[in-house]
Amino acid sequence: MSKNKVTIVTGASRGIGKGIAVSLAQVGYDLIINYYSNNTSALETKNRIDALGVRCHIVQADISIPEDRVKLIEFTKEKFGSCNLLVNNAGVAPSKRSDILEATEESFERVMNVNLKGPYFLTQLIANWMIEQKKEAAEDNFRIVNISSISAYTSSPGRGEYCVSKAGMSMMTKLYADRLAEYGIGVYEIRPGIIETDMTGAVKAKYDKLIADGLTPIKRWGKPADVGQAVAAIADGRLDFSTGQVIDVDGGFHLHRL
Ligand SMILES: NC(=O)c1ccc[n+]([C@@H]2O[C@H](COP(=O)([O-])OP(=O)(O)OC[C@H]3O[C@@H](n4cnc5c(N)ncnc54)[C@H](O)[C@@H]3O)[C@@H](O)[C@H]2O)c1
After folding, report:
1. For ligand 1, what atom is nearest to the CA of residue 162?
2. CA 67 to CA 57: how far, in whole Å?
3. Best of 39, 41, 151, 199 to mutate for ligand 1, by most ligand atoms within 8 A of CB?
């Protein structure tokens, strides 16, 4: 059983998920690091977290598979007996960027299953568990954070399925924020902009130029820690009256400028 607050971060072996895990450890959360395939990076992340003095376990689970979502929750129950925060971070870009006039149903299904269906039903599982926990410990805090993207509202016809999945995640945030407010469970959406990770590695040169040319008012790449700090602020209870809120972590990309 855990005395600290506990969080599950999906897809946390690298990139933004790892940045979030480190920030949450720094504000005292015990961690469940979910990873998809790379056990070595998950162990490296665990070592980093262990050094911060909180407890941490790693667990393989594909969030697009129903049995794996149950496994993730059961593993957390077994290791810690509680969970105060779910961070739906795991996500994929299309394997190949294709114009919306040619993109395949196969790619649409893959991206939607990981980016939307997985988090939607994982949230359903955890929400029911959080409601039970709240009945046992009314003073404890429970929150859910969804990592969407500027793609939730920005058109990129070369990866339409990704944009649609993130727009869906925005509505999912509103739905769960509305439904869970009566239980005191806050639900938030964070929209990262252009963040330096493996996901953006393939398009680094393109974004280097766009950023240098002024795409974002703050002229630099975002770092996983930028997103981690925003999640930590929510996890630390600084936005408890703001359920359903969207937080842009994007160097000002969302500003309309003249
Ligand atoms: N990098 C960016 O610029 C950027 C911008 C906006 C939003 N995002 C979002 O942030 C999140 C993290 O992205 P990142 O840049 O760190 O990418 P990344 O590819 O480095 O990390 C994604 C993680 O999710 C995991 N994952 C993939 N499919 C999974 C599955 N089915 N089950 C469990 N885990 C799975 C991967 O193994 C990986 O660890 C994603 O949801 C992404 O859409 C990224």
Report:
1. 43
2. 19
3. 199
Residues with CB under 6 A from ligand 1: 10-11, 13-17, 34, 36-37, 62-64, 89-92, 114, 147, 149, 192, 194-195, 197-200
Q: What is the pTM of this model?
A: 0.98
In the prediction, which pLDDT does 1 show? 61
Alpha-carbon span 56 to 139, nearest angstrom: 24
> Domains in the chain and their CATH numbers?
6-246 (3.40.50.720)
250 φ, ψ to 5°?
A: -145, 15
Cα three-residue angle 176-225-72, rounded to 5 degrees: 45
Closest CA to 90 of 152, 28, 37: 37
CB distance 103 to 160 below 8 Å: yes
pLDDT tens-digit map of 211-258: 999 999 999 999 999 999 999 999 999 999 999 999 999 999 999 999
Q: What is the mean pLDDT of residues 191-218?
A: 96
How far away, in angstroms, is 91 Cα from ligand 1 center? 4
The catalytic residues are 162
pLDDT digits over 88-125, tens only?
999 999 999 999 999 999 999 999 999 999 999 999 99
Mutation to probe ligand 1, out of 8, 16, 23 (largest number of atoms < 8 A from CB): 16
Report d(CA 24, CA 231) in Å as an integer.
8
Q: From 188, 97, 193, 209, select the one nearest 146 (Cα to Cα).
A: 188
